[in-house]
Design a protein that fits this description.
signal; 4-stranded antiparallel beta sheet; mainly beta; 1 helix; WxL domain-containing protein
């Protein structure tokens, strides 16, 4: 009886070992699969123009300029980028209000994808200054904001329409 139990146990063990695994039998054909994840560019879109409004000498004229968006389609494992802003002096004929009389306030930033964004409000000047930094990005991402430009109009400002150029860039 004892030998019969051992024989049954040995046969059961042999059945478990003999059963093929999920990979199939040796010699089954296999297919190597490949694909490409495409990548694009790092871009910045900004409004073409903005009217900040009007105000008397000695006041502050302030308005949002419209949506600005960084689009990072580079599909990087470790993405980062920086947005800078520079302002020309505001000119009305021969009258000038210096760029340093203006401030750039980033406001709320909305993102998509994986990116950590740090805004920096600045007093504008003719020299580019960092206003937004994106770090710890993975894959494609975007950041959108609607900055407010405020201009301190000097008490001695001459009346008329002043024009300046805000140049923003991303790298």
């Amino acid at each position: 009886m004892r030998s019969r139990i051992l024989a049954v146990a040995a046969a059961a063990a042999a059945l478990v070992v003999v059963q093929p695994g999920p990979a199939g039998a040796a010699g089954d054909p296999s297919t190597t699969e490949t694909f490409t994840v495409t990548s694009g560019a790092l871009t910045l879109t900004v409004p073409a123009s903005a009217n900040l409004g009007s105000g008397a000498p000695g006041t502050v004229i302030s308005a949002p300029i419209g949506p600005c968006t960084v689009t990072d389609d580079r599909a990087l494992l470790s993405a980062s980028w920086t947005v800078t802003a520079a302002e020309t002096d505001f000119v009305n004929g021969t009258a000038t209000i210096p760029a340093t009389n203006a401030t750039y306030t980033v406001g709320s930033v909305t993102t998509t994808g994986t990116i950590t964004v740090t805004p920096t409000n600045v007093t504008l000047s003719n020299t580019a200054q960092t206003v937004l930094t994106g770090t710890a990005g993975v894959g494609d991402n975007t950041a959108s904001w609607d900055p407010t430009i405020s201009v301190n109009v000097p008490a001695g400002a001459v009346g008329g329409t002043y024009t300046g150029t805000l140049t923003q860039s991303v790298a």
